[in-house]
Design a protein that fits this description.
mainly alpha, 4 helices, about 80% helix
Length: about 100
């Protein structure tokens, strides 16, 4: 949703054509949604980082996106970092349960 709102703002504040804005923004929005379903696959987290970098770089068109991009990159880092920790804990608990059974 942030990408869509940024595109709306960029339509008013930049000289980039609407077709270009919506093509790039639309592709990024679709990619974000698709990545939600495939995060357990190889390379998905790397693509997510590339999207975060692109979101920060969009600050060249809409200045406020520098700050929002950094905030969302931090949230992305936290979700990846703590998600991996949770996966390790779940695997350890499953191994303990299997050993006790």
């Amino acid at each position: 949703m942030v990408i869509g709102f940024a595109a709306l703002v960029a339509m008013r504040l930049s000289h980039v054509s609407s077709a270009t804005l919506w093509s790039v923004s639309g592709a990024a929005m679709v990619l974000c949604v698709l990545l939600c379903g495939v995060l357990n696959r190889r390379g998905a987290v790397t693509i997510g980082w590339a999207l975060q970098i692109a979101l920060i770089a969009s600050g060249a068109v809409v200045g406020m996106m520098y700050g929002l991009g950094v905030i969302f990159a931090g949230l992305w880092w936290a979700s990846v970092h703590y998600g991996r920790k949770i996966d390790v804990i779940k695997a350890a608990r499953a191994a303990d349960a299997a050993a006790q059974a």
